[in-house]
Structure formats: structure tokens, C-alpha cells
Write a structure and sequence with these properties.
CRO Repressor; 8 helices
Length: 164
């Protein structure tokens, strides 16, 4: 019975590391991963924006640490989660308030089909094969590349199509 009721309440909520350390760790990890992911030009995230994907991964990791006991204190885990959410919000806010910064936080859409012609140099940079492009166009309801006025690869990896 002692196993169920012997909870160390003080240890559970008393920070086991300085709270500022959790803020600094969260800040450094978020910004470092953000820029590493931003530098790698792969947009194949299935419709989830890079910032959202990063937020999900880091919050899940921080929550797991505080839930599983790697942080003995729930308080440190919550401070770390709050820091990651704050940076995600800050980057979204900066991109909204200062459109010139938006390209730093979100890659611009790139034209991969123009007037029915595949833009092979851009497709090569984005690692999109002709078959993959055709498959994505079919999912958009377009069965012939010649019918496409423009097709873009968006910042989240999705293809948008403007037909003639």
C-alpha cells in the first residue's frame, strides 16, 4: 500500500535545476533546431509547417521528460514547455508583424511548373521527381501537365496548382 501513497510532494514540484536554466536550454534548443531544419531544404512534412512540427516535437520531448521523471520536478518541465511555446509564438508573431522576416521563418513558394513546363532546376533543388510531381498534380485533379499554368511547392511541402 505504501507504493501507492508514498508520494514525495516536495520533490515533485520543487525545481531540481534553476528555472532560468530551463529557459536557456529551451531557447537554445528551439533556435538551434529551427535554423538547422530551416537550412535543410526538404519541405516534405505532409502539410505541417516547419514551425508547428518543431513545436510538437519539442513539447512532446519536454513533456515526456517531466512525465517520466527525467526531470524530478514538474515545474522544470512546465517552464521548458512554456519556453518552447513562447519561442514558437514569438517567431510566428515576428513573421506576421514584419513581413520581411517571413522568409527567414517560412520559405517562399517556388514555381515548379510554368506554362505546362516543369522547372527541372527547382525540382532538383527540392528533390521532387517527375513521377512524384505528376502524382501530386493528380491529387489536385490535374491529369496533364500541359494544362497547368503554374504549380507551386508551398512552404509546407504541398503543391498548389493554377490551371489554364
Amino acid at each position: 500500500m505504501d507504493l501507492f501513497f508514498n508520494v514525495q510532494w516536495k520533490e515533485l514540484f520543487t525545481p531540481d535545476a534553476p528555472l532560468l536554466e530551463s529557459v536557456i536550454r529551451g531557447t537554445i534548443v528551439y533556435i538551434a533546431i529551427f535554423f538547422l531544419v530551416r537550412v535543410i531544404p526538404n519541405r516534405q512534412m505532409g502539410g505541417v509547417g516547419m514551425n508547428d512540427m518543431l513545436l510538437i516535437v519539442l513539447v512532446a520531448s519536454a513533456a515526456t521528460n517531466s512525465l517520466a521523471g527525467e526531470h524530478k520536478s514538474i515545474t522544470n518541465g512546465m517552464v521548458l514547455i512554456a519556453t518552447v511555446i513562447l519561442w514558437s509564438y514569438a517567431f510566428n508573431w515576428l513573421g506576421f508583424k514584419f513581413p520581411s522576416l517571413l522568409r527567414l521563418f517560412q520559405p517562399a513558394a517556388k514555381v515548379i511548373v510554368k506554362d505546362g513546363q516543369m522547372q527541372e532546376d527547382i525540382m532538383q533543388k527540392e528533390l521532387i521527381t517527375e513521377e512524384e510531381l505528376k502524382g501530386k498534380l493528380r491529387r489536385q485533379g490535374t491529369d496533364d501537365i500541359a494544362k497547368v499554368r503554374e504549380a507551386f511547392i508551398e512552404s509546407d511541402g504541398q503543391i498548389s496548382v493554377i490551371e489554364r
